[in-house]
Design a protein that fits this description.
Blueprint: E1 4-12, E2 16-21, E3 24-29, H1 32-35, E4 43-52, E5 57-62, H2 65-75, H3 82-91, H4 94-102, H5 106-109, H6 117-137, H7 155-164, H8 169-177, H9 185-198
Antiparallel strand pairs: 1-2, 1-4, 2-3, 4-5
Length: about 200
């Protein structure tokens, strides 16, 4: 319903940013990582997610589309609510979340406040299952089934990690094929996200 809000940042707390658009202040719950990018009084754009419950409507705002997409993936996991999603993304970047899931790194995810081992394991399990389904739907039996040009070095791991963020192999394999497959996975992910952001 609400794709984004753009306007002057008029108030911030440790977990919210209020953006004034056309005389209306939108109170967006957000992450520490997004808050670090904002300056009071400046014009900002936050990509939003509106959570409607029986007793409340909550607006969440994020500095990047990737952070929003990761938040949506996290809250799609059973037992993970918006509070836990914000906690994970306050502690980790979307790239770090993707890497933790791709490498079964429960310990990294549990660094988020209020996220225990069971929730972290569920996040990894459900998002990996979603990733596997994405590969099957996209016509790839697994990462190794990606186009030959896109499977050298660390590229398969990058494709898997980007899948956690909601990108299909066909979305990213063309970009990854143009990059040096020997680069660290984190660099491959960030360069791919940068190019996807320009499209």
């Amino acid at each position: 319903m609400l794709y984004s809000v753009r306007g002057k940042l008029i108030h911030m707390t440790s977990s919210t940013a209020v953006v004034e658009c056309g005389g209306v202040g939108f109170d967006c719950q957000t992450t520490l990582n997004t808050l670090k990018t904002l300056r009071m009084g400046s014009e900002v754009t936050l990509f939003t997610y509106l959570n409607v419950r029986e007793d409340a409507m909550e607006l969440f705002g994020f500095a990047t589309k990737t952070e929003l997409q990761t938040f949506k993936s996290l809250i799609g996991v059973s037992g993970v609510g918006p509070k836990a999603g914000l906690a994970v993304l306050s502690e980790l970047s979307p790239e770090q979340v993707a890497m933790a899931i791709a490498t079964d790194d429960v310990k990294t995810i549990t660094r988020a406040q209020g996220v225990g081992k069971k929730i972290a394991q569920r996040i990894i399990l459900e998002l990996k299952d979603k990733l596997a389904k994405s590969f099957a739907d996209d016509g790839f039996a697994n990462v190794a089934g990606a186009p030959a040009a896109a499977v050298s070095g660390n590229v398969p791991k990058a494709i898997e990690a980007l899948g956690v963020l909601g990108y299909t192999p066909s979305d990213v394999s063309g970009i990854l094929a143009t990059l040096d497959g020997s680069l660290p996975v984190e660099q491959l992910i960030s360069q791919t996200l940068r190019q996807l952001g320009r499209q």
